[in-house]
Amino acid sequence: MSAKVNKVQLLPLYPTYIELCELQLSEPEFVDYPQIAQFLDKTLSIDKVHTVTVDNNLSHKTKTWWYEHWVWGKEFLTYTGRNKSIHTYDRFRNEIEKFLLWSFLIKQAPIDSLRKTDILEYADFCWQPPVTWIGTSNHDRFMLSNGYFVSNELWRPFKIQVAKSQKNKIIDKKKYRPSQQTLTSSFTAIIVFYNYLMAEEYCLGNPAQVAKKDCRHFIHDAQVKEIKRLTSVQWQYMLDTAVDLANEDVNFERNLFVIAALKTLFLRVSELSERPTWSPVMGHFWQDEDENWWLKVFGKGRKLRDTTVPSDFLTFLQRYRLSRDLSSLPSSGENSVLVEKIRGQGGMTSRHLRRLVQEVFDQAYQRMKSIEGENKAMKLKEASTHWLRHTGASMEIERGRALKDLSEDLGHASMATTDTVYVQTENRKRALSGKQRKVD
Prior knowledge:
Strand order of the largest sheet: 7-8-9
């Protein structure tokens, strides 16, 4: 089957949420995506059986269910983007797109006819997909060309990347294996998709729900979870680097503010970013009657929370505001963008914010490597933006802060979540008792 699979022309099926909302199924709007129209043979009557050529040598006899399933996916993703979040839309789009492409081009069977064994077959496919389905970096699905959206030839449904700390950057696509988290995300999306289709009476059952517990690729993990965080020394290098950069170039005041906010206020990068449903502004900082500062945050699950703002953070807030010719502290109702673009108007996207943080990670790594050695600096090379939230929370635990207060600042639904992720009370007891074992 691999020789046959390798010839198939891959095509992204869905654009961004905003573009999907604007995409209409009737002419002339649908013609903005001529390749999707051709792929689904939208120009033919919907009750016809037709042939779609996917390369010069191979043709597939495609029935109306391709188009019907694409519409099912569009309806589900539109519902997700409207009622959940853009992040959830993007995550589900990745999985639904892969699943539909597999059903179209590999399984060649409608998804409402699939059974548990078919879903397990799809899991095997995801565990070791053809190398032609694997890319090595993120690419936009569509590009604007001559007034039309055309598919990006570099786009692939699966992605493999080398670790930032890995010296050998040569990628062997044959070694691709999804992580347990990726596999879980795939099943979650497909299960939710089938539940939606059942609610709309498009499908009678949910084979993915039944198949998940029998998937041989899942590992029941009973390991002690390692928190992805920086040590206090690594964080100090990170902060010192950001401060030095800001002292030399005022444009780096923004990098410094973002890094300090993510670590000290336990923010997710999305909570600082501009989103269709929320624009973070300076007026979201507010002071209560006891002169305590707070920040109003629109977080995960579309929940608003107020997180405490420590006095030490105000110095970084003041620095950043003064660099923008604003007053030293925010006023009530102030609509200035929280993290503004240097060029253009409005707030920054999560992708842009990650680039700001990564720029400092890279320079902090080089600085610590030259002074402390590569081994001690390695985590600065491996770290992602989210490590700053983990670092701040872990340091608060070490400081002895009340678990209930920290849990509310983090936006966790319960203290149990905070304890499981950061405190690991039972594991600490287990480790302490384990130290007392004797050899003799």
